[in-house]
């Protein structure tokens, strides 16, 4: 919530903006204002604010002449189970030498509710370093320890020897759980590397009292059998390691130096009690189709996606409780709406069809896109590519485009050609350890074998732009200050919209379907029915 003075200033700026519609990205900015204003209440999955935002997107899709591609309209309704912790009736404690040491929830550690936790757990703790078992890469962090019935303690980090996209894939909670479950574990404690934490503990812990969600569709449970998921404050990690002969500082230094990290049983057991309030909510994916013109290819689809949801209303930071999610990700949805409108204005009819989909539940774990990819409203085997936009960060001029998945499929050639024609360079993710390739909705499509790209405004390391991006992440990412009152480079937004539009048209006009590169790890997800 803003103070009245700030509101007055916003209104003046808004009026000035509308008056000058010749400014770069004027239409994009109008969508930003519509989606990220305080009245949308942060567009939390399942909230009335998100529903209002979804109705806005549907109306804009209609204006842009898109065919409805939801279920009985533009909306595809998605049902979620929600879980909220009752902290007063939940607890964590370490039992060592018969003595019980409580861990303070919110301060030392938090119990994660993306999984459905068991009411109580008591189990031995085993530290497993990076916590990865990847035989095809010769990685076995479980060697010499038994995880049977244990709670696995791992560093949320991946070895530098793995290529970036593999770090991203195997570092995900879902892939990790597959490994831990196969080894007989019943739960997890993750400890972040403080150097690569996007959100400082003091801020991330504010979100612990918000309801967590999973898809009601039980076939889509990503953590079967997991009884407990704990996130440890790295500043308190030595509480776990006490008596082991190891310290967190030394272990994390091994990660930072790219060295192997040992695995060992901890001389402690964990006792957990979790009390949860359960409910269910509906939220909305919104989908529309620009129908293609070529009779042979119009039933094939290029999917443009961007998540519409954000974090809603939560813990106050500087007196503000509305997490507007202007960059994350009103900006991406606004870009998609702008692309749809400008293709409509131009009367564009690419050969293949283009599906525009604004998805819900991204912040809850890519849930809306998972649902869409599992229950697509067009035949999945006919989806030829996905291009996703999440928080593209127009903070400075767009000279270089950061492309996630650049070297994974021949879509890399399409984005290189598109960017080149607009005088923009391309780069891979300069920070693969942040797992960005699997941290947004493109991953829901990749898991079904659909070649995908995601893009952001890029920057070179050790430049003022890199510092600006880092400061943005530290100060505004998942904070109420990611709102309409922040510095935004509208010329970068305008250029980004051009990139997405030209790329979508280029892919839609390709003679052949996009393919994963032979060398790509993600090629393995291609389904036998993917190329019919
Ligand atoms: Zn986010």
Brief overview:
The protein is α/β, with parallel strands linked by helices. It has helices at 4-19, 26-36, 48-63, 164-170, 173-182, 201-204, 238-241, 248-256, 326-345, 367-374, 411-421, 442-446, 464-475, 490-508; strands at residues 67-68, 75-85, 91-96, 99-103, 109-111, 120-127, 133-134, 139-140, 151-156, 187-192, 212-215, 228-232, 264-273, 276-290, 301-307, 312-317, 320-323, 353-359, 383-388, 400-404, 425-427, 452-457. The structure holds zinc ion.
Structural account:
By secondary structure, the chain is α/β, with parallel strands linked by helices. The protein contains 14 helices and 22 strands. Strands 1, 2, 11, 14, 15, 18, 19, 20, 21 and 22 form a 10-stranded mixed β-sheet that branches. Strands 4-3-13-6-9-10-12-5 form an 8-stranded mixed β-sheet, with no helix packed on it. A two-stranded antiparallel sheet has the order 7-8. Helix 9 (326-345) packs across helix 14 (490-508). It starts with a helix and ends in a 24-residue tail after the last helix. Mean pLDDT is 92; it is low at 1-20. The structure holds zinc ion. Zinc ion binds next to loops.
């Amino acid at each position: 919530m803003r103070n009245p003075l700030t509101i007055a200033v916003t209104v003046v700026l808004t009026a000035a903006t509308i008056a000058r519609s010749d400014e770069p990205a004027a239409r994009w900015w109008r969508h930003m204002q519509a989606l990220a204003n305080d009245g949308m209440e942060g567009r939390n999955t399942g909230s009335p604010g998100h529903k209002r935002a979804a109705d806005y997107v549907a109306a804009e899709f209609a204006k842009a002449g898109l065919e409805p591609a939801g279920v009985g309209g533009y909306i595809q309704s998605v049902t979620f189970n929600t879980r909220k912790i009752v902290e007063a009736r939940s607890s964590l404690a370490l039992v060592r030498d018969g003595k019980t040491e409580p861990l303070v929830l919110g301060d030392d550690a938090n119990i994660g509710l993306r999984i459905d936790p068991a009411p109580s757990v008591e189990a031995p703790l085993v530290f497993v370093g990076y916590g990865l078992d990847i035989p095809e890469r010769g990685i076995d962090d479980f060697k010499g320890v038994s995880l049977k019935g244990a709670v696995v303690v791992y560093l949320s980090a991946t070895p530098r020897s793995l290529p970036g996209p593999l770090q991203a894939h195997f570092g995900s909670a879902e892939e990790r759980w597959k490994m831990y479950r196969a080894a007989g574990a019943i739960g997890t404690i993750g400890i972040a590397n403080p150097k690569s934490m996007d959100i400082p503990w003091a801020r991330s812990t504010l979100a612990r009292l918000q309801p967590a969600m999973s898809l009601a569709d039980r076939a889509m449970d990503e953590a079967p059998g997991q009884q407990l998921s704990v996130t440890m404050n790295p500043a308190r990690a030595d509480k776990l390691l006490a008596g082991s002969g190891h310290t967190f500082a030394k272990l994390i230094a091994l990660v930072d130096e790219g060295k192997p990290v040992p695995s060992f049983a901890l001389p402690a057991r964990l006792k957990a009690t979790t009390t949860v309030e359960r409910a269910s909510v509906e939220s909305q994916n919104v989908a529309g189709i620009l129908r293609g013109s070529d009779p042979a290819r119009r039933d094939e689809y290029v999917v443009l996606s961007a998540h519409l949801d954000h974090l809603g209303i939560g813990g106050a930071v500087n007196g503000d409780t509305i997490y507007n999610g202007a960059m994350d990700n009103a900006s991406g949805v606004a870009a998609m709406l702008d692309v749809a409108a400008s293709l409509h204005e131009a009367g564009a009819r690419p050969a293949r069809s283009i599906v525009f989909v604004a998805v819900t539940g991204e912040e809850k774990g890519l849930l809306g896109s998972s649902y869409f990819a599992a229950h697509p409203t067009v035949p999945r085997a006919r989806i030829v590519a996905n291009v996703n936009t999440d928080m593209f960060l127009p903070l400075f001029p767009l000279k270089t485009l950061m492309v996630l998945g650049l070297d994974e499929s021949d879509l890399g050639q399409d984005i290189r050609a598109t960017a080149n024609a607009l005088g923009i360079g391309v780069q891979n993710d300069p920070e693969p350890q942040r797992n960005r390739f699997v941290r947004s909705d493109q991953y829901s499509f990749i898991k079904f074998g659909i070649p995908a790209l995601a893009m952001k405004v890029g920057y070179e390391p050790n430049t003022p732009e890199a510092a600006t991006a880092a400061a943005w992440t530290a100060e505004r990412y998942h904070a109420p200050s990611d709102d309409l009152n922040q510095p935004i480079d509208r010329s970068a937004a305008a250029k980004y919209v051009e990139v997405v539009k030209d790329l979508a048209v280029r892919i839609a006009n390709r003679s052949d379907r996009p393919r994963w590169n032979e060398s790509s790890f993600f090629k393995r997800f291609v389904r036998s029915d993917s190329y019919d």
